[in-house]
């Protein structure tokens, strides 16, 4: 059907780009250690962009099994939109070789019978009951999900690319009750089918964190060295990255205008890397057909790159970094692939002092000024090897100052979804 | 449609399913965005899809956006439910046959795209000014036509329009950059945007963004805080609303579990969630489980009176269903969600409230929030603030966020104003996004302020 649509488009005197998807997902929700909601969803659709006399039109249709008349109308409608639209058309990318990445598709996920996935979720729930037994009063919930997506992009510049990917994710949330309350959570996503041990690990880690949270009380105000664990550092990096999106740079909504400036401690190097094998944020080509690649954003404290798609690359006089993210319902927009905080040389595993494990509320921060105030969901103090947890303080500061104050970056890289980071030692303030 | 209904009945018999429900949804939407006079998006789309839930002590769900797969989606949901065999329960009330529409004065479907573009251009032009480095305008509308039917015999057709206009500016100067924004929206027609005083509000956001360039970071620590109606809205949404959603109660993940009838706040506090408020962004007539939307008093005079519930939590917890099962769209299962949440007004004037504060903060505007319902901790941001000293408003502060413990903050409320406003449209995320509104009067309480001083 894609070929038929292309034939129709080739008859018209327009430039065009089509992006199509077909996929399905199965997911399972466990509440109170019982499998309560199971679902299987199907999706498919086509997004069409048309460039006509310097203007861009976009629309989409759901489903990919349409008759010729529907396709003709779809094309007519999109061309008509391009005529009335005042969205400038700056050209589609030309043909380039996609990146070679291993491990983005696992046949075992694509072909897993729903009954088997359901049974795995059932076992996950039963294992929750076993693992909480005899430890106190816990409520455990969680989710398990599997998905497969077939997608492709073609344009009038000769791009015709197709690929497929799979994903699996697991999450657990534990609440420990009694005279007080503690909560813990764990989330991870993968490209390939995982052994049951990963699910068990998710339960154990969430319970461990709930135990810690149960013991935690508010800590005294403090200013000085803080060790940030990857989930907490992710919040800080996320606020900073807002400034590197090409559209924010172009429209004056970024703190930065040019590359080359020192923006952080020399200990800090951050890359966006779509080419990591098995990476949950990896892709061979982006939503416009540009190859996925590794882009150095911050190198030893210096700003080296922005995140760009074709349009904002062109507007900023740069090349697309292959960061156009989309689905068939949307036009491409700039997004990250895998964000990697490069590991350092220090061993921060036996650190003694104040550690911030998790924070929340980062969307209330101001990415441009860099000021943030985040609630500490969980932290702990290590003294003489003894761990004293705390929570409910606020971590306050300025992102740029905090990144500049980084004293050490750990050796061990930890991954949560598409974010990779070691532990990071910086100067901060909690109130 | 008749064919699908017959097919569903037949499949339910085959798979031994006691309850099922089907939503077929058509959304006709337009969306325009502009930045610095450059149109970035102009989209007109119609989407149709089907979502099917079947219950067998646990839920099976399936959806498709290709209607040729409709029967397959029905069968899949039922097969999954058969496989599931849980021991939960759901409310099975009287069947409803109805056609309900939120009426508008002027349908946005009848407004030419050129007129919508003109509106966006006008706002962009009005936002221009010295020190303004970025202007951003977003307009969106969508008409949701939904046919709902279930195995009880309910057949409900609903038509709900939603419209939203929002704009923001970034100001640059003094080596600083600051943003300010405003949104307008409702379950309404084109008349909503026509009623906005664009000249006033565009000047307002420009002025605010520029003034924030010279504002200081707030002090940190625990302070008396007066919240304006917009911030009161996000405060009550985050600090109470999520914890009162009965799915978190059912799983024991809310700090409000088992506290119905208990005094959890000051006597003056009454908090309402009301999807029936005319024209508000979070309004609807029936929820996505075919239950009529109801006004719910969550807290009445300081006492926790009700949870927000869906078919399942109502049955499991033995409560009256109140129509708060909402789904982002046909491809999502309904979850317990808020609609329009607000604090009822009392009799304090703003001046009286101000005179109560020796040293504290007046905090204005919603910058979003987040809550940990199990631990009872929340955080939310304000667009701006002012230091209060001895009852007088002093210097402006920026980038302010607050944090607190739900049960402490509700008991720390010292004054509730008389000036109720519920017109702060937004989207609330809980794995899915649904339109909500919130608000209240000015409220004086005590919270932890996270500033850099």
What are the key terms here?
heterodimer; A: 431 residues; PmbA/TldD fold; 2 domains; 23% helix; B: alpha+beta; globular
Task: Briefly summarize what is shown.
The complex is a heterodimer of chains A (431) and B (453). With 431 residues, chain A is α+β, with helices and mostly antiparallel strands. Chain A has 9 helices and 21 strands.
Mind describing the biggest β-sheet of chain B? Answer: 9 strands, mixed
What is the tally of beta strands of chain A? 21
Number of helices of chain A: 9
What structural category arises from helix and sheet content of chain B?
alpha+beta
The helical percent of chain B reads 10-25%
Estimate what percentage of residues of chain A fall within beta strands.
35-45%
Distance between the termini of chain B: 64 Å
Which strand order does the major sheet of chain A show?
3-2-1-4-5-6
- The dominant shape of chain B is globular
Tally the helices of chain B.
10
Instruction: Tell me the helix content of chain A.
Output: 10-25%
InterPro entries (chain A): Metalloprtase-TldD/E_C, Metalloprtase-TldD/E_cen_dom, Metalloprtase-TldD/E_N, PmbA, TldD/PmbA_N, TldD/PmbA_sf
Pfam families (chain A): PmbA_TldD_1st (PF01523), PmbA_TldD_2nd (PF19290), PmbA_TldD_3rd (PF19289)
Protein name (chain A): Zinc-dependent protease
Domain Metalloprotease TldD/E N-terminal (chain A): 16-82
């Amino acid at each position: 059907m894609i070929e038929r649509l292309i034939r129709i488009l080739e008859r018209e005197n327009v430039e065009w780009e089509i992006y199509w998807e077909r996929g399905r997902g199965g997911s399972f929700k466990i509440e109170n250690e019982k499998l309560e909601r199971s679902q299987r969803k199907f999706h498919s659709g086509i997004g069409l962009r048309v460039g006509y006399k310097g203007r861009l039109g976009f629309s989409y249709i759901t489903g990919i099994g349409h008759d010729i008349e529907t396709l003709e109308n779809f094309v007519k409608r999109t061309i008509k939109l391009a005529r009335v639209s005042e969205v400038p058309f700056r050209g589609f990318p030309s043909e380039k070789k996609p990146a070679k990445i291993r491990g983005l598709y696992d046949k075992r996920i694509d072909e897993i019978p729903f009954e088997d996935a359901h049974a795995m979720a059932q076992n996950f729930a039963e294992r929750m009951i076993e693992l909480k037994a005899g430890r106190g009063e816990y409520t455990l919930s969680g989710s398990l999900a599997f998905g497969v997506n077939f997608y492709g992009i073609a344009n009038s510049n000769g791009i015709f690319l197709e690929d497929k990917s799979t994903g699996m994710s697991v999450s657990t949330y534990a609440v420990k009750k009694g005279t007080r309350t503690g909560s813990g959570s764990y989330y991870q996503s993968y490209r390939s089918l995982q052994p049951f041990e990963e699910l068990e690990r998710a339960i154990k880690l969430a319970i461990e964190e709930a135990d810690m949270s149960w013991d935690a009380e508010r800590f005294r105000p403090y200013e000085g060295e803080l060790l940030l664990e990857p989930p907490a550092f992710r919040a800080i990096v996320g606020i900073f990255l807002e400034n590197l999106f090409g559209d924010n740079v172009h429209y004056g909504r970024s703190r930065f205008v040019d590359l080359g400036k020192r923006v952080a401690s020399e200990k800090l190097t951050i890359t966006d890397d779509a080419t990591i094998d098995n990476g949950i944020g990896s892709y061979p080509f982006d939503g416009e057909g540009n190859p996925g690649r590794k882009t150095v954003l911050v190198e030893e404290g210096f700003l080296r790159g922005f995140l760009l798609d074709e349009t904002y690359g062109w507007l900023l006089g740069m090349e697309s970094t292959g960061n156009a993210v989309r689905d068939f319902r949307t036009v491409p927009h700039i997004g990250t692939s895998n964000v990697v905080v490069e590991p350092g040389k220090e061993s921060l595993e036996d650190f003694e002092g104040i550690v911030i494990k998790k924070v929340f509320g980062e969307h209330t921060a101001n990415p441009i000024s860099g000021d943030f105030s985040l609630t500490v969901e969980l932290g702990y103090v290590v003294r003489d090897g003894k761990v004293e947890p705390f929570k409910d303080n606020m971590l306050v500061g300025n992102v740029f100052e905090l990144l500049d104050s980084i004293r050490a970056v750990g050796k061990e890289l930890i991954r949560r979804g598409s974010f990779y980071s070691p532990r990071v030692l910086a100067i901060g303030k909690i109130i | 449609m008749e064919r699908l209904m017959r097919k569903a009945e037949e499949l339910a018999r085959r798979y031994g399913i006691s309850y099922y429900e089907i939503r077929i949804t058509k959304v006709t939407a337009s969306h325009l965005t502009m930045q610095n006079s450059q149109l970035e998006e102009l989209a007109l789309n119609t989407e149709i899809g089907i979502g099917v839930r079947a219950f067998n002590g646990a839920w099976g769900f399936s959806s498709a956006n290709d209607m040729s797969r409709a029967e397959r989606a029905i069968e899949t949901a039922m097969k999954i439910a058969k496989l599931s065999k849980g021991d939960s329960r759901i409310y099975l009330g009287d069947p409803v046959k109805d056609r309900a529409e939120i009426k508008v004065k002027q349908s946005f479907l009848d407004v030419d795209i050129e007129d919508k573009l003109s509106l966006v251009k006008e706002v962009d032009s009005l936002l221009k000014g010295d020190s303004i480095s970025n202007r951003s305008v977003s307009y969106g509308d969508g008409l949701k036509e939904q046919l709902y039917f279930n195995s009880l015999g309910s057949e409900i057709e609903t038509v709900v329009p939603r419209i939203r206009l929002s704009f923001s500016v970034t100001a640059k100067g003094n080596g600083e950059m600051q943003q300010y924004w405003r949104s307008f929206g409702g379950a309404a027609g084109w008349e909503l945007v026509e009623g906005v005083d664009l000249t006033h509000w565009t000047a307002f956001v420009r002025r605010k963004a520029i003034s924030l360039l010279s504002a200081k970071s707030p002090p940190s620590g625990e302070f008396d805080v007066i919240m304006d109606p917009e911030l009161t809205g996000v405060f009550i949404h985050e600090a109470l609303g999520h914890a009162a959603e009965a799915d978190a109660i059912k799983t024991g993940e809310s700090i409000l579990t088992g506290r119905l009838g208990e005094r959890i706040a000051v006597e003056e506090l009454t908090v309402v969630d009301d999807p029936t408020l005319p024209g508000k962004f979070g309004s609807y007539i029936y929820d996505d489980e075919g239950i009529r939307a109801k006004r719910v008093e969550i807290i009445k005079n300081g006492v926790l009176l009700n949870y927000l519930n869906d078919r399942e939590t109502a049955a499991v917890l033995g409560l009256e269903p109140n129509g708060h099962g909402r789904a982002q769209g046909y491809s999502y299962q309904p979850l317990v969600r808020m609609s329009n949440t607000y604090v009822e007004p009392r009799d304090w004037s703003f001046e009286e409230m101000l005179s109560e504060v020796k040293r504290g903060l007046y905090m204005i505007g919603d910058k979003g929030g987040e809550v940990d319902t199990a631990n009872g901790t929340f955080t939310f941001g304000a667009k701006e603030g002012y230091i209060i000293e001895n009852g007088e408003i002093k210097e402006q502060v920026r980038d302010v966020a607050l944090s607190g413990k739900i049960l402490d903050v509700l008991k720390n409320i010292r004054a509730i104003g008389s000036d109720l406003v519920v017109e702060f449209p937004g989207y609330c995320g809980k794995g899915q996004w649904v339109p909500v509104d919130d608000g209240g009067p000015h409220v004086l309480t005590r919270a932890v302020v996270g500033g850099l001083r």
